[in-house]
Design goal:
Blueprint (H helix, E strand, L loop, with lengths): L2 H33 L29 H13 L3 E8 L7 H14 L5 E3 L13 E5 L4 E4 L14 E5 L5 E6 L9 E8 L7 E5 L6 E3 L10 E9 L1 E6 L6 E9 L4 E8 L5 H5 L2 H6 L7 E5 L12 H18 L4 E5 L5 E2 L2 E2 L1 H16 L3 E3 L1 H4 L5 H7 L12 H24 L6
Helix pairs in contact: 2-10, 3-10
């Protein structure tokens, strides 16, 4: 080999080693970037599933940049809590959809607690799969979709009340996909009256605690801090003859991460929420960074649609949200197609077009489930595929799980895009 050939051979070897080095660096950087991004949920698309327009599965309008920034800082520093409040109707009450979002976000950012819960079984209503409640008495109850019942509803959109002495609420949380759902801090939303009291007990080893909400509207809850995590508690009324009302409890822990509060009420509309003063008095306690609003299905059950009246109720609702949480992001979701009589719901089509236009005009973030699931006429396919219940308005748990994956993916994609453009937050 002459000297020129030797030099050429060394150059080839050096170039190979350099390229190999660059490849290793690239792979390491890719791993680092991937570690900072949310993994998207797989969405099945085959003959067994309804058709989806995944190209539309994104959040449009609005600005969620501050939300993404706060999430990124929680991930980077391991400190802080991001509170998400999801308000809706019967599609939200069982927590199928929102639990998918909660569990995935908490797996990545950390679990700051289950958030707001209510003993639905004591109000003779359907409960999320992880909530178990029982009592030694039958309670009087109401939900805000029934304003004709003279029982005021609070933060969870529900209420139970009794004047029985030693009326007891037994409450526990089951494990979820991420493991045990323990909590160390409880914020009780109870009757604001001097003459009523409750005794709180748990398996924490602490002595029983007496609760009596004398704080007024400024702090609309009573707080109990435990000396060790638990997943259950008992609350006992200690006021014979005086009515005591229970509106819900926020179950929290001392870890950094995400806390997603679900407020779902069967049959609820925007005007139902607007007509409940106590709901709005207690809502500030949740300190929302993001408010997701999933309403409209029940408005669409009317024989006709008044766009102006609907927009007025929407204005009232959003105005209160903005007043209570001035720095929070707002995300509105559209309900998907369902039946009305023997065919798809034309009122819902008009309502969703109105809702979409409202969000565009007012620069409010929108997740358009109606468009993602193929809009008007799609209900026939969802029913045929076994994804819709026999009432042809609600969906199966599998379908709600799919919707939850879609919403999570839309939020996750927005966060990932934000992180690509803000490398300093990694």
């Amino acid at each position: 080999m002459n000297i020129f050939a030797a030099i050429a051979n060394d150059a080839v070897k050096n170039n190979y080693m350099y390229c190999k080095y660059l490849l290793i660096v690239f792979l390491l950087c890719s791993v680092n970037i991937s570690a900072q991004q949310l993994h998207l949920q797989a969405i099945p698309q085959d003959k067994t599933t309804p058709h989806l327009n995944l190209v539309f599965n994104r959040i449009v309008n609005g600005n969620l940049q501050q939300l993404y920034k706060k999430l990124a800082l929680v991930k980077k520093t391991g400190k802080g809590v991001v509170n998400i409040v999801h308000i809706g109707d019967s599609h939200i009450q069982p927590d199928y959809l929102s639990s998918v979002v909660r569990n995935n976000l908490q797996a990545f950012f950390g679990n700051a607690g289950r958030g707001l819960v209510f003993p639905y079984q004591l109000a003779k209503s359907n409960a999320p799969a992880d909530i178990v409640s029982s009592s030694n008495i039958a309670w009087e109850f109401n939900r805000l979709a029934h304003p004709e019942i003279p029982i005021e509803c609070g933060i969870a959109g529900h209420a139970i009340k009794s004047n029985r002495a030693l009326a007891r609420i037994n409450f526990s949380l089951k494990d979820n996909v991420n493991g045990p759902q323990d909590f160390t801090t409880l914020k009780f939303f109870i009757e604001n009256a001097v003459s009523t009291s409750w005794m709180f007990e748990s398996g924490s080893g602490m002595m029983p605690v007496m609760l009596n909400n004398k704080n007024g509207d400024s702090i609309p809850y009573e707080t109990v801090v435990l000396n060790k995590p638990v997943s259950s508690f008992t609350l006992t009324s200690h006021s014979a003859g005086e009515y005591q009302s229970f509106y819900g409890v926020s179950l929290e822990n001392d870890q950094a991460g995400v806390r997603l509060h679900t407020i779902g009420v069967n049959g609820a509309r925007y005007d139902h929420y607007n007509a409940q003063p106590l709901f709005w008095q207690q809502l500030p306690a949740l300190n929302a960074d993001l408010v997701i609003i999933s309403l409209g299905t029940n408005e669409a059950q009317a024989s006709s649609f008044d766009a102006i009246a609907f927009a007025n109720q929407l204005d009232i609702f959003l105005g209160r949200i903005k007043n209570i949480f001035p720095d929070a992001a707002i995300l509105i979701t559209t309900p998907q197609d369902s039946y009305k009589g023997k065919g798809s719901n034309a009122v819902m089509r008009t309502l969703n077009y109105t809702l979409s236009g409202y969000c565009q005009q007012n620069n409010i973030a929108l997740w358009d489930l109606y468009k993602i699931t193929s809009g008007f006429g799609a209900a026939r396919n969802w029913l045929k595929k076994g994804y819709m219940n026999s009432d042809r308005v609600h969906f199966t748990s599998v379908a709600y799980n799919l919707q939850g994956k879609l919403l999570y993916n839309a939020l996750a994609q927005g966060y990932n895009d934000f992180m690509k453009n803000n490398q300093n937050l990694r």
